[in-house]
Structure formats: C-alpha cells, structure tokens
Write a structure and sequence with these properties.
12 helices; 7 strands; Nucleotidyltransferase, domain 5; globular; alpha/beta; two-stranded antiparallel sheet
Length: 317
C-alpha cells in the first residue's frame, strides 16, 4: 500500500472521473452524481465533499490537464486529493475482471482503487511552480517541433527546403523566447530562485534541469531517495521468478523529468569529477553504459534531494 496517513485515520474515499465537460463522482460506492466541469460545478462539488464525515479523499486519474481545475478547487476547499496513473487503475480493473468502461463505472472503480491501494496524497503546487510548468511545457513543444523540422530538412528538396528553414528559424526564436521567460520567472520569485541556485551547486545541473525539477517534482526535498527514484522512473525493479534471475529494469515514472535528467547525467560524467569517477568505476566493473548512466541519474537525484532537504548540506569539493 502507499499509505501516507496515520494507521487509525478514517477516510471517505471518493471516486472522481474527469472529462472535458463533466465530473462524475461517487461517495457511497453505489450511486453516482455529476456536475459540469465548470467553475460553478466545481464550487458545488467542493462544497458537498468538504462537508462529508469522515473527511473525503478524492481519487482521480491524470487526464492530461482536464483535472487541474478540479484539483485546485478541491484543495482550496480543504479536500485531500490523490492523482493516480490511468494505467494502474486499468490494471486494477482487469484484476477485478471489469472490462466495461463508462464514466460511472470509472468513478466507482476509482473509489475501490483508493480504498484498496490507498495512494499517496497529491502534493499541492505553488502557483509560481505551476506557472513555471506551463512555460516548460511550451518550451518542450517548441523543442520537439524544432527537432521534427530539422529532421525533415535532411531529406528536403529544393522547393521544400526554404520553407523548412524559415520554420526552423521560427521555432529557434520561440525556444530562445521560452528560455528567456523561464529565466525571468525564476529570477523574480525568491523561493524558486533560491532553490534553483541550490540545485545548480551540483556540477552538471544546468538551468533546464533545475527548472524541470522545480516544476515537475514538487516532492524534491520532502521524500526519501528511494521513493524519489521511483517517482522519476530511475529505480531498478526486480524481475526474478524461481531460478530465473533476470536483469533489473527501470520503468514508469515521470518521463519529462527522466529525459532531461539523462542529458544532465551525460554532461555530469564529463565535467563532475566525483560523478565521473563513479561512472567509470561501474564501467570497469563490467556494467553496461546505459546501466551506469541510470545509476548516475539516481545518485544525482539523491544529492539534489539532500541539497533541498538540508540547508547545511555541503557538496564535496
């Protein structure tokens, strides 16, 4: 289980299915109510759930953004929320033998999932960090589009090449603009600026990784290293069965963070003396390069976690 509440805590789990236009929810696990996914609908839902005894704890899936308004309204009303991976919920449904899928069934399923699994509470995001995440989402989109255009340029003919070159320059300008806005946003916020400066004390951590961690890993500095590694997706999981001892593999986690952390680890093994030596020890021990890099990523996360958790922690020179 993933409990992060006292053993004797009494909670009323509420399943909440989120769609673009409507929110379906169940309190008793039998009947379902629904409200529009609008400001007035959220006010009604928040008022109802905040009055429940024992206190309500809402379980909903990450839906790519449609759940954000609901999360903000519920947290503002003092209602606890757990945001879970849709894949885990679907696997839970399959384990129950439930193959049908409707908004009502999903709400009922989410309530049962919460009661059985007891997922971790959603960590409320600071408004400044939420704005930083939006800027980083924009930067990532511009970067992805720039890469796609450059890839097309490699095979472009005389007619298409000038158009693609113009398009590439456009995305290069947007990427530079995004970097400027991200830098200004962090610089003008005392909390973000202080955390970013602390993170960048580790050689190999650049402005993009520091901003990514601040925006996508609000748990940094507040949880144990092993839990943090699993959240990001760099924790190795065993795959043993009987006498079969297969290599461990990382899986799941927050891909956006993992991809940026990977590039930072490549830079770190070249420019950070301690991390570089750690990587070389693993390679000399016969570990594959990919495994050694993941180990460096995990060690970097641990150090960065400690930097934010302990203001007196100092890095080795």
């Amino acid at each position: 289980m993933e409990k992060n509440q006292p053993e004797n805590a009494k909670i009323t789990y509420v399943g909440l299915d989120v769609s673009k236009d409507r929110l379906d929810y169940t309190v008793d696990g039998q009947s379902c109510g629904h409200v529009p996914n609008t400001e007035s609908g959220l006010r009604k839902l928040s008022a109802e759930l905040s009055a429940i005894t024992p206190p309500a704890r809402v379980v909903c899936e990450a839906t790519g953004g449609y759940e954000r308004a609901a999360l903000s309204a519920l947290l503002l009303a003092g209602v606890e929320v757990c945001v879970v991976n849709p894949g885990r919920v679907r696997a839970f449904a399959h384990a129950e033998g439930l193959l049908a899928k409707t908004d009502r069934l999903d709400a009922l399923l989410l309530k049962r999932f919460g009661e059985k699994v007891q997922p971790r509470l959603h960590v409320p995001m600071d408004p400044s960090a939420a704005a930083l995440r939006e800027l980083l989402d924009y930067r990532r989109q511009a970067s992805d589009q720039l890469v796609a255009v450059r890839n097309r340029l490699e095979l472009a003919g005389k007619v298409l090449r000038p158009l693609l070159e113009t398009q590439a320059r456009f995305f290069e300008e947007k990427l530079a603009e995004a970097d400027r806005l991200i830098g200004e946003h962090i610089e003008h916020d005392d909390t973000l600026r202080g955390k970013a400066e602390r993170l960048r004390q580790l050689k190999g951590v650049g402005p993009v990784l520091a901003a990514t961690l601040l925006a996508y890993v609000p748990e940094l500095g507040h949880i144990q290293d092993k839990s943090l590694s699993a959240l990001v997706g760099v924790a190795p999981f065993a795959r043993d069965s009987g006498s079969s001892l297969r290599p461990r593999r990382v899986r799941g986690g927050r891909g956006v963070v993992r991809h940026v952390l990977y590039m930072a680890s490549v830079a770190a093994i070249k420019h950070n003396r301690i991390l570089g030596a750690f990587y070389q020890r693993l390679r000399f021990a016969g570990k594959p390069a990919s495994l050694a890099l993941v180990a460096v990523m995990r060690k970097m996360l641990g150090v960065l976690n400690r930097l934010l958790a302990d203001p007196h922690f100092a890095l080795a020179q």
